[in-house]
Amino acid sequence: MSDNALSSCRAFVFDAYGTLFDVGSAVAKLRDSVGDEADRLSALWRQKQLEYTWLRSLMGDFADFWTVTGDALDYALDQIGKKDPILRAKLMETYLSLDTFPEVVETLKTLKDKGHKLAILSNGAKHMLISAAKTSGILSLFDQIICVDDLKTYKPHPDVYQLAVDKLEVEPAEISFQSSNGWDIAGAGHFGFRTAWINRAHNPAERLSHTADVVLNGLDELLPLVGEPQKA
Q: Using one digit for the tens of pLDDT, what is the confidence trace for 206-230?
């Protein structure tokens, strides 16, 4: 699809972890304490965090994202042979104040100044999202912080994307959804959103039924594609 696919969008909805917030910064802040296995721990933690959301959704066995994040960390720490309750507590605490990617704040401010509706749509627990957004100074830029706690299932289930439609009171095709996760982009595109894949890592496209309308290296590349807000 052409780069003007997003020009008629009235709302811009963002995945949180990996898109706005750098999940790698959690372990990076404590690299000296973790030691030589820091990179492996970070990758394992994220891998299991995602896997547990999908598996819990399939099993109908919901636990909130804070619990899932803790379970994933326990698995990763066990895998690298590092059982340290104090380190575990510190790593969990970092998830409440993750770093944003360098271009995030200015991009969001520009979109807000243009008059667009902005929202986070995340698997994250509400308190996690509010804490991270507040710490990074972006909380006030969002019209909605939308999480799955009440729905009790995770993306990429279509009902999660429907939450954004209901909260923002716009049609799916009027929403531009930004995510760094290819599987999330596929789910959002299948649901009917316009999609922008923030592919900072230059990963290959997922082999799923929907691909991104646009592929960007960073959120700042979104700005030239954005039109003026359309009145309801």
A: 999 999 999 999 999 999 999 877 6
Nearest to 96 by CA among 71, 70, 76, 119: 70
Beta strands in 93-193 (DSSP E): 117-121, 144-146, 175-179
Catalytic residue among 3, 15, 22, 220: 15
**Is 159 marked active-site?**
no
- Using DSSP's 3-state secondary structure scheme, residue 97 falls into coil
Contacts with 229 (C-beta within 8 Å, 6 or more apart), sequence order: 10, 114, 115, 116, 117
Residue 71 tokens, joined: 């379970």
Segments of 76-165 assigned E as strands? 117-121, 144-146
3 state DSSP class of 224: helix
One-letter identity of residue 119: A
**pTM score:** 0.95
